[in-house]
Design goal:
Blueprint (H helix, E strand, L loop, with lengths): L5 E9 L4 E6 L5 E7 L4 E6 L5 H20 L9 H16 L6 H19 L11 H11 L10 H20 L30 H14 L6 H20 L3 H4 L7 E6 L2 E8 L10 E4 L3 H13 L23 H11 L14 H13 L4 H7 L4 H8 L3 H4 L1 H5 L7
Antiparallel strand pairs: 1-2, 2-3, 3-4, 5-6, 6-7
């Protein structure tokens, strides 16, 4: 869109020309332009009023505030947080086009920028972020939820705060702000000791039911796109369950990250899982359960040319047109159709619940928590926090044993 020219008939100067109140050609709204002597630049602000008297009053207020900032050595021409967030998302989109990052995380970040980050920060610059900004954001967030108010979940709030910190780091990397000059946000004190609690998962009998019903459900697809997603879920669901992978591992998994081998006469699979690059979760080879092997072999036969092998650099669960289907949405529709979307506590289940089911089943099988945490690329503390509901059952023999009597 071409920039509008100033209207020479609607222009008023104040303070020896340092402040100009004017209109652009074709626009009814007044603008303010303030000259910043030290920087030899102009600060432009839309006054958003059509009355000249109101415009001059608003312009004088901005001018006085700007003069104060200059006298106190405070930044005047700094980038706004909301603008930086948009530029950060634009850069993430470019990286996604080259296969870097997670599209599902990007969609969530864009919603958070639109619904929370931009409304909260408004026209504020980075210098306005204080040492306890997270507490102010938390209080604002409670009464401005798009889902009707109330405290956001700890994981939800953590994602939003991580996004704000990512925007700060991006601004530092682009030299819009000095590194370390803006404090990073942490979890507000009210949420630091809030436990995630028991997570929604599937019982072993529900997994059996799901695998059985998926086979019939994929045959009822009505569109080619729906058919592709449902067909892939036939293999993706058991592979996720038997490997314990995260949902953001799916998009980045390539065939070169799949290693099949024999051990004691049994077919096994190792997967190199890396997740999103911005994640603190380390990339590593993980061992899946033996059942995972057959589903990967069957899926490979589905997508490979006759008598051929997939390209090692091809993504395992992308289609030929480089399209990544909405697996989460398709699986949620499946769960709702078969009335197993909510667990016994009323918590909604998703693809990620397959990872929780994997962890609980492994603990029930007697796998050591440290070994399991290592293979699932998480911490022992996380295993204890999220899957503590099975620890007593696992440790029954140890807890109930009696002291042997001395003869």
């Amino acid at each position: 869109m071409p920039r509008l020219l100033d209207d020479p008939e609607a222009r008023h100067q104040f303070h020896d020309g340092k402040l100009v109140v004017f209109k652009r050609l074709g626009s009814p709204y007044w603008q303010a332009r303030i000259y910043i002597a030290g920087a030899r630049k102009y600060l432009n602000r839309s006054l958003k009023v059509t009355d000249l008297t109101e415009a001059v009053r608003a312009a004088e207020k901005i001018f006085r505030r700007t003069e104060f900032q200059i006298d106190e050595g405070l930044p005047v021409l700094e980038m706004r947080v909301a603008k930086a967030a948009e530029l950060y998302l634009t850069e993430c989109e470019k990286l996604l086009s080259h296969g870097v990052g997670s599209s599902s995380v990007h969609v969530k970040n864009r919603k958070n920028v639109r619904n929370y980050i931009k409304p909260y920060f408004g026209d504020r610059g980075f210098s306005s972020i204080g040492n306890f900004e997270e507490n102010e954001y938390f209080k604002w967030r409670i009464v401005n939820s798009k889902l009707g108010g109330g405290r956001p979940a700890k994981s939800t709030l953590h994602g939003e705060i991580s996004l704000i910190n990512a925007v700060i780091e991006w601004a530092e990397s682009k030299r819009h702000i000095k590194r370390g000059a803006v404090p990073k946000l942490s979890m507000p004190k009210e949420m630091r000791n809030v436990s995630h609690g028991k997570r929604a998962f599937f019982e072993e009998k529900e997994i059996t039911y799901i695998l059985d019903k998926l086979n019939d459900w994929h045959l009822m697809a009505s569109t080619p796109k729906e058919k592709r997603a449902r067909n892939a879920l036939l293999y993706l669901v058991p592979i996720m369950y038997y490997s314990g992978m995260r949902t953001n591992d799916i998009e980045l998994l390539r065939w070169r990250d799949v290693r099949m081998y024999d051990h004691d006469g049994t077919k096994h699979v190792e997967l190199f899982l890396r997740g999103k690059e911005s994640s603190k979760v380390h990339a590593a080879w993980v061992v899946a359960q033996p059942e995972c092997h057959k589903y990967l072999v069957w899926w490979k036969l589905q997508i490979s040319p006759v008598g051929g092998e997939p390209n090692p650099d091809d993504h395992v669960f992308w289609h030929e047109a480089r399209e990544f289907p909405l697996y989460e949405q398709a699986f949620r529709n499946f769960l709702k159709k078969h009335d197993i979307w909510l667990d016994a506590d009323g918590k909604p289940r998703s693809l990620y619940s397959l990872r929780h089911a994997h962890a609980i089943d492994r603990l029930k099988a007697g796998v050591n928590a440290f070994v399991l945490a290592e293979n699932m690329r998480t911490s022992v503390q996380a295993i204890r926090d999220h899957y503590g509901q099975v620890k007593n059952r696992v440790n029954t023999a140890e807890i109930t044993k009696t002291q042997s009597r001395r003869e």
